[in-house]
Amino acid sequence: MTTPESPALPRLNEPAPDFTAPTTHGPKSLKDYGGRWLVLFSHPADFTPVCTTEFMAFANAHDRFQALNCDLLGLSIDSNFSHIAWMRTIEEKFGVKVPFPVIADLSMTVANAYGMIHQGASDTSAVRCTFFIDPEGIMRAMVYYPLSNGRSIDEFLRLLEALQTSDTHGVATPEGWKPGDKVIVPPPATAADAAERMEAGYECTDWFFCKKDLP
Predict the structure, then answer these.
(1) What 3-state DSSP class applies to 24?
(2) I want to staple 207 with a disulfide (CB 3.0 to 4.6 A). Which of 33, 148, 194, 196 is the partner?
(3) Domain around 36
(4) What is the CATH number of the domain that holds 189?
């Protein structure tokens, strides 16, 4: 429940909160990413071990996100000076160059707008939030992790491809779906549709559960 002092949290299938913020690549706004997918993700703090592993994984997967028409944008409640120093350390010590910008959110403006501050976890650090924003600026998925455990970047790539597949083909995807797997045909809305469904050539276990291959 929100209070008068706490902003409403973002909601799925509604416009993502707008922002303009300083980053390691200069000022960035949500509108800068119009026409492309955006994965906006927060981390608790620079120069921390778990966050370092995540940033290296995001950096190593950057080209794969780009190939899916998706940009990456990090955030923490640290200064640009801290971000830059940390990026340089990651490149020097681990040989990984971070190619995407990182928001310096000292005022916690973006963090609060996106519900990244969870008082039960920390009053001053953003938890591990990941937001999938589509090319129209609509919030499509939100994933939250605790401070103690790193995220799976491969899962985020899988989810991004699943969202794009659903949009393109008007289908759903089952648990663990990967490109090339069968997709789920939306359930019929009428009794007549249900009867026709069983004769439509899909792989049907029952009238409400049918799969098909994509062309």
Answers:
(1) strand
(2) 194
(3) 20-151
(4) 3.30.1020.10
Each residue's pLDDT tens digit, 31-79: 999 999 999 999 988 999 999 999 999 999 999 999 999 999 999 889 9
> Exposed e or buried b for every residue in 41-61, given b needs 16+ CB within 10 A?
bbbbbbeeebbbebbbbbbee
pTM, two decimals, is 0.90
- Of the residues 51, 70, 129, 210, only one is catalytic, namely 51
For residues 75 and 123, membership in a common domain is answered with yes
Domain at 129, CATH number: 3.40.30.10
- Is residue 51 part of the annotated active site? The answer reads yes
**Is 162 within a domain?**
no
Q: Please enumerate in sequence order all residues whose Cβ is within 8 A of that of 50, keeping only pairs 6 or more positions apart, or say none.
A: 147, 148, 149, 150
Q: Which residue type occupies 200?
A: A
In whole angstroms, what is the distance from residue 117 CA to residue 69 CA?
29
